[in-house]
């Protein structure tokens, strides 16, 4: 029995994009930072992270793998929707993808963004990108964006398994350091409908993972939410502590080891393989602090099934049905459509977005 996908006739995977070869690195960084006041020094430094990995970001291959996994998962239940892919900062560019969708006669699509939490960078900026692309493409399809999924049992469950596995490699009584991408504190203050949603959502996800790990291991343990990949000028405050500083305090406090759990990332992005696996791992080594990095969801079955379920859920909601909305944690399932003033940009007027246009 095929699954009812109406009113949708396609799914769009929308992601950040990344360079594929050394010559792509500078133009990619220019795309990312145009007009954002990132110091040249920081750009040179981040460029080096990419060059150290052959000028290729892992993110595009991660998305290709996710597309294949989604296809297989959709086929399993007869969810008969084509899946397209477009990025904010690198080919395949969102505008080109939207043009292709229009040419294929797609009228209405649901978008999966590879970012799980509310914030300007992870939510509204993608919606602005959809709005910009829409204005350039005649007959672009109507697009709905899936609700934030960080507190979905499939996302939390995937990190529970990964955390348990990382702890297995460490001494008894090791701590957990949940890590996410730092953002300016001012961006956190205005994230979500009532502000602070970026941090609140991460704390909620961390608490859920803690509770399940405690249930399984029969003991509470230290855990903290910490940050990586700070950018921007030094005088602008960003969320802290940095993961490296945190490892120093853990070592000073004598914890026997630490599981580093990157709950802010859906797959092994450059931030994960450089900031955590390279830089933080070197810090831990220097401190003689045993560290194990938990896997990101990537193409984990729980994660892929969750994305499929959310597509089916949203289709039902758009047909006027009242689908179940699975949710872990205290914050409840996220809203389907963001309010017009949700997650406003810093230092710029709010621009039009396209979502349920
Ligand atoms: C919250 C958040 C996410 C998670 C949500 C999501 O996934 O969207 C995220 C993801 C990513 N960020 C990425 C790369 C970069 N982010 C930068 C800059 C910035 N990120 C910010 C925030 C976030 N970023 C912010 C507030 C800035 C300052 C400039 C600005 O306000 O825009 C810069 C410029 C250099 C630098 O300053 O670091 C780069 C190169 C990549 C690709 C990695 C790869 O290649 O694998 C990914 C997935
Ligand atoms: Fe970023």
UniProtKB/TrEMBL annotation:
Which is one GO molecular function term here? metal ion binding
Q: Which reaction is the catalytic activity of this chain?
A: Fe-coproporphyrin III + 2 H(+) = coproporphyrin III + Fe(2+)
Name the EC number(s): 4.99.1.9
Q: Which residues bind Fe-coproporphyrin III?
A: 57, 126
- Highest taxon of source: Bacteria
- Asked if the Swiss-Prot or TrEMBL record annotates the protein with the keyword Thylakoid, the reply is no
Gene for this protein? cpfC
Q: Where in the cell is it found?
A: Cytoplasm
Give the family this protein belongs to, as stated in its UniProt record: Belongs to the ferrochelatase family.
Question: Which terms does the UniProt entry file under GO BP?
Answer: heme biosynthetic process
Q: Name one GO cellular component term.
A: cytoplasm
UniProt entry keywords in alphabetical sequence: Cytoplasm, Heme biosynthesis, Iron, Lyase, Metal-binding, Porphyrin biosynthesis
This protein's name: Coproporphyrin III ferrochelatase
Which species does the entry assign this protein to? Kribbella turkmenica
